[in-house]
Amino acid sequence: MRTSIHRPSWIEVDLAAISYNLKTVMQALPQKTAVFGVIKANAYGHGVIAVAETLAPLVDGFCVSNIDEALELREAGFEQEILVLGVSAVSAIPLAIEKQIQLAVTSLEWVDLALESQADLSQLGVHLKLDTGMGRIGFRDSQSANQAITLLQEKGVTVEGIFTHFATADQKDEEQFHAQLARFKELLSKLKIQPRWIHASNSATSIWHSETVFNMVRLGDILYGLNPSGRELALPYPIQPALSLYSELVQVKTLPAGSSVGYGATYVTEQEEYVGTIPIGYADGVIRAMQGFQVLVDGQLCPIIGRVSMDQITLRLPKGYPIGTRVTLIGQDGNQTVSAQDWADKLGTINYEVVCLLSDRLPRKYKER
Ligand SMILES: *Cc1c(COP(=O)(O)O)cnc(C)c1O
């Protein structure tokens, strides 16, 4: 699908904010900590190539969620280490080797399938994933992990890293976090190798448990200027949101009292009202549950009235504005700000989901500063 560049709805990304956020987090970590930038899902909706270019001089590698995301980076010419965090299809191992993409090894069963595939594994680099309490992917015990290491090493595979992932590092209650940390240390002590990279920290762990880094961290959400805990934990330092979402009024009208607006006629004007339409809708990731949320026009909060359509949204305006007036759906206008976290609060979700859902129909523009 082609991006809709002739429509006045767009995402603006402040790349300088992303570098700033990275440097800010790293300053609070032990000096020799290495960092992999997590740029899965189109860099959390921010546009993966531009974000990768920004991060490239500052990071030791990248993490993505699947092989195709890694291939996109290789095809764009990035030569950094790349780790695929999810489980990869065994059939794609030759491609991973050819493009020097490191894979996560998460179970003995996967290792067996890799061996059965008869692929030449001798140039493959992997990170062993340990499940210390996330209950998702990874080895639960040191015996099976050691068995996997033996089988892989027999085939010439290089184990580049060992890692785990915390389920609750973004929460006030630290009980599970400490249990997982203890479990990771225990498993590490029983493994037969100590590879180059030992990593356990996502953004939340890097921010609120900065003493528990091993020798590398995997930073995602915080790079984009988002608080991974939502509003549960305060950040120890200020960060800068990188993404804004804008549109423009394409029509403004006055509707007499008693006029309905949108599908289902769910909104009826109480008096004569100014109604503005913007060309963005649920197909862009502004989902229907955003009805009633407020966005910024001329520095003032204006409610979304009526249902959100696939491609259009209607706003109640305090007065008439000309066609082309800017509408800020995420970002700052005057003294007012609407954040991805405000969307998440409205929708009962997390800021990650808000930015990831912004669709490819929206062009990503990059702010000069
Ligand atoms: C997505 C992901 C990360 C990054 O998480 P953030 O909370 O965005 O920093 C780190 N590790 C793994 C395994 C992930 O899947």
Q: Can you give keywords for this protein?
A:
elongated, 369 residues, binds pyridoxal-5'-phosphate, 10-stranded mixed sheet, 11 helices, alpha/beta, 8-stranded parallel β-barrel, single chain
Describe the structure.
This protein has 369 residues and is an alpha/beta fold. It has eleven helices and 20 strands. The chain has helices at 15-27, 40-44, 48-55, 67-75, 93-98, 108-116, 142-154, 175-190, 203-208, 340-347, 351-356; strands at residues 9-13, 34-38, 61-64, 81-84, 102-105, 125-129, 158-163, 197-201, 216-219, 243-248, 251-255, 260-261, 267-268, 273-278, 294-297, 300-305, 313-317, 326-333, 336-338, 364-366. The strands form three sheets. Strands 1, 10, 11, 14, 15, 16, 17, 18, 19 and 20 form a ten-stranded mixed beta sheet that branches. It has an eight-stranded parallel beta barrel with strand order 2-3-4-5-6-7-8-9. Helix 8 links the parallel strand 7 (158-163) and strand 8 (197-201). Helix 1 crosses helix 3. The model has no long low-confidence stretch (mean pLDDT 97). Pyridoxal-5'-phosphate binds at residues 38, 40, 85, 165, 202-204, 218-221, 228.
